Amino acid sequence: MVFDQDGTLVQTEKLKALSYAQAALELCPDDVSEDEVVAAFADVVGRSRREVAVFLMQRFGLEDAARALIPELKVSTPWQAFVQLRVRYYAAMLDDPEVLRRNQWPHNVELLKEAQSTGCKTGLATMSTCAQTHVVLEALGLADAFDFVASQDDVEHGKPDPEIYQLVAHQLAMPAGQCLVIEDSPSGVKAALAAGMWCIVVTTPLTRSAIHSERLIEDRWIVDDPGTLMDVVRRMVTERAAN
Q: What is the residue range of 25's domain?
C-alpha cells in the first residue's frame, strides 16, 4: 500500500495553500486576497513547485513583483523568487509539530497502521522535499512507518508523471498491479493510474470538486466520507484478489 503525504496523511496542502497566499500578499498586497489564492491553489494541488508558482503568478499578475526580488534572493527566474518567499512561510508552519499533529488526517493514518499490522509492505510517494517529509513524519510519529519513502528529491518528474510511483514499486520489489495507492489529488491519481496501480482517492475540501469533475476514477473508489474508507479498501482488495 502506497500513500501520498500532503493532503492524504496530513493537511499540509492547506498549509501550502496558505503559504502561497501569504507570499502573494507580500508581493502585491493591494491586488490579491488570501482567499482568492487559496481557492486558486485547488486547481494545481499536488503539482510541482514550479507549476504551482507559474500558475499563481499568471493568475494574479505577480511576475513583475517577483522578478524584482531575483537579485536579493539570488535566483534566476520570477517563479523561483516566488517559491523562495513561500518556502519561508511554510517552513515557519512546519517548525511547530503541534500544527502538524492538529492537521493530520486520522482516517488515512489509521489505514496505514492497519496495513502495517497485517504485514503489508508500505511506501510513501510525496512531492514534498526529503527534509520537509522527515519533519512531517517525525511530528506525526510515522518516521518508521514505511518500508520505503520517495520524495521530490528522488525523481526527475513530479506527479502526474508516474515516475515516483514506479520508483516506490521497484524499491518495494512489488509489481505495480499489486500496489494500492491512497491519494487525494487529481495529479496524484493520474500518476498512480499511469503507473498501473490500483487507486483509492480520499478527497479533501481542496480536491473534492476537481476529483469528481475530472472523472479520473470510478465513483465507488472515491471516498468523500472518511468513515467508509476501510470498507472501500476491503472491497477493492477483495475484488482485485478475486480477479
A: 13-97
Looking at residues 40-69, what average pLDDT do you find? 92
* 82/177 same-domain check: no
Q: What's the per-residue H, E or C state across 227-239?
A: HHHHHHHHHHHHH
Q: What is the pLDDT of residues 1-28, one digit of tens each?
A: 999 999 999 998 889 999 999 999 999 9
Q: Where in the chain does DSSP place strands (E)?
A: 2-3, 123-125, 148-150, 180-183, 198-202, 222-223
pLDDT per position as a tens digit, 87-126: 999 989 888 999 999 999 999 999 999 999 999 999 999 9
CA 189 → CA 212, 222, 233, distances in Å? 12, 11, 16
Query: How many helices and strands, by DSSP H and E, does the chain display?
Result: 13, 6
From residue 225, give the alpha-carbon distance in Å to each of 56, 191, 222. Answer: 30, 23, 9
Taking residue 77's Cβ as centre, other Cβ atoms within 10 Å add up to 15
Final residue before a domain boundary, out of 63, 79, 97: 97
Report d(CA 200, CA 80) in Å as an integer: 33
Cut 0.85: pTM above it: no
